[in-house]
Request: fold
Amino acid sequence: MHKLTDDQIIHRLQEIKHRFSYNQGQLIAEFKFISFAEAFGFICKIAIHAAELKHFPIWSQNNQKVKISLYTESVKGLTEKDFEIAKIILIYV
Reply:
């Protein structure tokens, strides 16, 4: 896994920028759901994919809101896996 360059990140952001922002080297998104249970169910669906990819988001849930940050610690930046899981997340929103 290699760290993406700024140009690669800018190009890849076009695919997800309507829901994710790029801030301090991370992809960040916040989603609001109808209920706590719906928000938790969303997290569980993403967790299954994250385990399969062996790439885990940083997330928090506060009642109906879920905040997600994507970042690859081992390269101190973003990789293709961050964008891959971002696209999976958008399937479930």
